[in-house]
Structure formats: C-alpha cells, structure tokens
Design goal:
Layout: H1 28-45, H2 51-58, H3 62-68, H4 72-80
C-alpha cells in the first residue's frame, strides 16, 4: 500500500460577540458621486449600464452602491423622479 501526502488548510474565523458592531453612517459625498456617475453611465450606455461600471466611475465598491440604493431601479428613480 502506498501512502499519499495531502495538505489540509483550515481557516478559523473568530466572531466577537462581546462588541456592538455599528455600520458607518452613509456619506452624502459618496451618494452624490454615485448619482453623478450614474448620470454619465446612463447617458453613455442607457439603462444597460452595469452597477459595477457606475460604482467604478464613482470610485467606490459595487457593494457600496447597494448600501445607498437597494436596486438599480432605485438608483434610476433617484435620478429621474
């Protein structure tokens, strides 16, 4: 019988339950940057402009966009309604 060597990687995640984790307050500057970037992106690509592109133009992560606008429709509504 032949022995086989294998490497096993175990990652440990520690959850600190003793602290109150509070989300950072939303920045009006980031929201404005997202709205301006969306205006440019929609003018160039129409509603097919991706949220990733809009976030990149605004200089933020795509997840940040969704902290301010739950959906792409919400972002469009903020611009045009």
């Amino acid at each position: 019988m032949q022995r086989v060597k294998a490497r096993v990687s175990i990652r440990v995640f520690i959850i600190d339950r003793g602290k109150n984790l509070v989300a950072r307050p939303k920045s009006e500057d980031k929201k404005q940057a997202l709205l301006e970037a969306a205006t440019v992106a929609f003018a160039q690509s129409g509603i097919a402009a991706s949220t990733a592109l809009i976030a990149r133009k605004a200089g933020v992560a795509e997840g940040t966009l969704f902290r301010y606008f739950a959906t792409k429709d919400d972002l469009l509504n903020a611009l045009y309604l």
